[in-house]
UniProtKB/TrEMBL annotation:
The UniProt record lists the keyword Repeat: no
Annotated gene: larE
GO terms of molecular function: sulfurtransferase activity
Species the sequence originates in: Nocardioides iriomotensis
Keywords on record: Transferase
Region forming the signal peptide: none
Listed name of the protein: ATP-dependent sacrificial sulfur transferase LarE
């Protein structure tokens, strides 16, 4: 990746070499189109036996002359940060002497994983292949050659001496004005690549029963499955139980039916599982086990090859997720996670596909509102649902808009969570807490930190703080 403008420092070092040897070189001309190895540039001016000693001298004086004044190109740090943000590895492949390239990296605090110097043109292909590079960013036609020889996507920026016409003629795949454009390009490229992987995965599956809660992830998975397989090879299963808010049922059915797929609404009985009712930290394990124990035979009954859940790539690395373990033990597939699609990417793709769920707030099951250790019962779940409906109505009455809202059942008391920005307004509106209390709680408190997905897990980490 082209990160610095080496021309001023390169020219100053060449000039110092010219002054030492007394040989006048066309320094400006030599720096117009940097890229070729140093021996190519020096050989027109010196006998062949002098070239290597002069290269050694150039490398010796380069750190003091060229490294300190060299600045990063606009967008260089942001470009590297974009690679890191998407879980990628940055390999700096350059014709520069490796030690001097490392000095530049260190001086400018570039977040680079590997530095490989002294390679040029097609010779870069071996390094790119060794490190599994799928994208190579450069500014020279020979960078394009290296990328193409390695089977990597060639991205060219107009920060060097090559023109757009020259780079296109060399066969570059992408042309950017500067590295400032790279993060947005990479965002789109990664999403496109992962969507292609998702489609390929679903096509290989042949048919799927999607565990469809109506949330953004499962809705997107359902839409993607229909695109890949056609509605005749896809069905949506929305499990009806006490833990699914009644308000979620009709919108979920309407969305699935709009895609032309079969909608199945089996009953699940997680409340009959002792581990679920006990509501320890592994409650979600028993919930997901019940769901998959119901959906797996249902899929077979309808000649569907797989049960697929909407688990995304963020969920997989989120830490404590016993529900994912239960689904995995029962053979459920996770196409979104397998394709590397994050929650943000699911929303971005959903918006591009005009899915109404693209900005739907997170809506975990009602049991997630009950504090660990407090028994889950149909009464508690119904009370939480009533309280959340009442809180939203009270907020609307006083003109307070919130996106996310949770009523946490702490036993006899409740804690209300709303968007952090809305906390001061809710503090000044006592009718909101009164509405929650009227749903059946002895006392209600407003969480001053606002809504946090998975807030109940905080009580596991520090139970004394949340007594």
């Amino acid at each position: 990746m082209t990160l610095i403008d080496t021309r001023p420092g390169f020219a100053a070092t060449l000039q110092a070499l010219s002054d030492e040897t007394g040989v006048v070189m066309d320094v400006a001309g030599m720096c117009e189109n940097l890229g070729p190895p140093l021996d190519h540039l020096l050989s027109p001016y010196f006998p062949v036996e002098q070239v290597q000693p002069l290269i050694d001298r150039f490398r010796e004086i380069y750190p003091d002359i060229a490294v300190p004044p060299t600045l990063a190109l606009a967008g260089a740090h942001d470009a590297l940060a974009a690679v890191r943000r998407h879980g990628g590895t940055s390999v700096l492949v350059t014709g520069k002497f490796t030690r001097n390239a490392v000095l530049h990296v260190e001086a400018l605090a570039f977040d680079v994983d590997h530095v490989v110097g002294e390679v040029w043109g097609v010779g870069k292909a071996g390094v790119l292949t060794e490190h599994g590079a799928r994208v190579y960013v450069g500014d020279h036609v020979h960078d394009v050659e290296g990328a193409r020889a390695a089977g990597a996507l060639s991205v060219s920026v107009l920060s060097g001496g090559c023109t757009a016409e020259e780079l296109r003629a060399a066969g570059t795949d992408v042309l950017l004005e500067s590295l400032d454009e790279f993060p947005a390009w990479l965002e789109a490229h990664v999403l496109e690549t992962r969507l292609a992987a998702l489609e390929e995965d679903l096509r290989r599956r042949g048919s799927v029963l999607v565990a469809f809660s109506g949330g953004a992830d499962s809705a997107f998975l359902l839409a993607a499955a229909v695109r890949a397989l056609g509605p005749g090879h896809v069905a949506a299963a929305t499990a009806y139980s006490d833990s699914l808010p009644v308000a979620e049922r009709d919108p979920a059915r309407a969305f699935a039916e709009s895609l032309g797929v079969r909608v199945l609404t089996p009953r699940t009985h997680e409340m009959e599982r002792e581990g679920y009712r006990a509501n320890a930290a592994d409650r979600c394990y028993f919930c997901k086990a019940e769901l998959l124990d119901v959906l797996t035979p249902l899929a077979a009954e309808h000649s569907l090859a797989h049960v697929a859940t909407g688990t995304n790539a963020d969920d997989v690395v989120a830490g404590f997720r016993p529900g994912i373990r239960a689904a995995d033990e029962r053979g459920a597939v996770t196409p979104l996670a397998d394709a590397g699609l994050t929650k943000a990417q699911v929303r971005a793709a959903s918006r591009a596909w005009d899915l109404p769920t693209w900005d739907k707030p997170a809506a975990a099951c009602l049991s997630s509102r009950v504090a660990y250790g407090v028994e889950v019962t149909p009464h508690r779940l119904a009370r939480v649902e009533r309280a959340e409906v009442a809180a939203r109505a009270a907020l609307a009455d006083v003109g307070i808009e919130v996106r996310d809202l949770r009523v946490r059942d702490l036993g006899d008391a409740a804690r209300l969570e709303v968007d952090a920005a809305a906390v001061p307004a809710v503090e000044a509106a006592p009718d909101v807490l009164a509405a929650v209390r009227a749903a059946g709680f002895d006392a209600v408190e407003l969480d001053p930190r606002g809504f946090r997905s998975g807030a109940m897990n905080e009580r596991l980490a520090d139970p004394d703080r949340y007594r």
